[in-house]
Prior knowledge:
alpha+beta; two-stranded antiparallel sheet
Amino acid sequence: MIDVLKFDINNLRMDENILKTKFKKTYESEVLTKYKYKFYDSELFNYSKKNRDEVEQSIDDETKLYKVSHHYIYYIFKKKEKTGKLVFNQNIRRNWIDYKIAADKKGIEYIDIIPRKPLMPRVMADLSYYNFIKIIELYAEELAIPKNIFWGANVTQVELGANLKFSTTIKTKNGFEKISLQGMLSSFGTLKNVPEKDTYGRSGIRFKADAFEISIYDKLKRIIFTKEIFKNKKESVKVKRRKKINEINHFIRYELKIKEVSSFRRESFADKLNTLKDIKDNWDVLLTSLFNTTEDIDFVDFLSPEIENELILSQLDSKSKGLFYEYLIYQGVKKIGYTEFIRDIIPLVNTKTKRVFQADVDEIYDKFRNKNHYNTSYEKMFLDTLYKRLDSLKVKPLLYKTSIYTL
């Protein structure tokens, strides 16, 4: 559930040997000294630091790159004082993956507890409750900080989310229909009280508020771009492999980024994110609260896979816009309500054409309503998958242990 996590520990006295061996002095003045944790020398967390370019895709411009800023641990203290401040900013989900890779190579035994279903590729695996505890306590041990002090750290920023897997086909009465990633992303209309909506080209969207953001995007495209997979492959090979994977599955990430915990006012999250211990103690509640953020999303009942495919095919047959106009009529009647349409709108129609008009509208309404009979709207598919995924990350379902993530 947790990705990027930022927190600090005040009035902390670091072990001098830890500062000498695991930190590098990056700044010094008459007033203060600043140390930075040496990831490249770490035996536990250096895999991605040495093997992946730390770049991500800009949300404003797909072709613009920027360096990832969530890979640092600083210790800062004033020279006249014996204690200082530890500032921690890490993607701890990636850290856990890096730790497992390093442990596998070094023959270090570890316990990896994952949800029963659905299993994800290792690079997309969400951090479970027990693995969250493990990675936090590994850092406490690595930095020689008492665990009770580490768990009491003040959380300032956090990303909560889940990676979702969708089959690219769905069964209907007419056979199997293709699922469109763009169609699913198009179903996210607006977010309550958040007017700003950005797009990741055709691969994602973001609702941006002052204290938080909600993003939904193509996770497979992102991890290829950040070189978490296929890092040494040519661009043409990456495109080919991505296309091949997308013939079977789409991977989407739903993510809540809380930019300022102290300013985040959603009641269901209150007093559950202030410290690392709060996150640990309220893990299941946070998962439920994360799902409930979808209640503020106004989904556009835009398309089902069946309707989308028929609209697309209609454009191959001719240049007629008739089917699209019919679909708009269907959506209009559905928005008003069929009973209200008959009661309030039909009486306004000219008496001579009223019967024919109603018959035509009824025919169009039934035509599209029947295509939604199988509950295959993108909204329902997304919400069902998100609910199941978040539920699988709760404490109780985590029942078995393994050392390898599998498909």
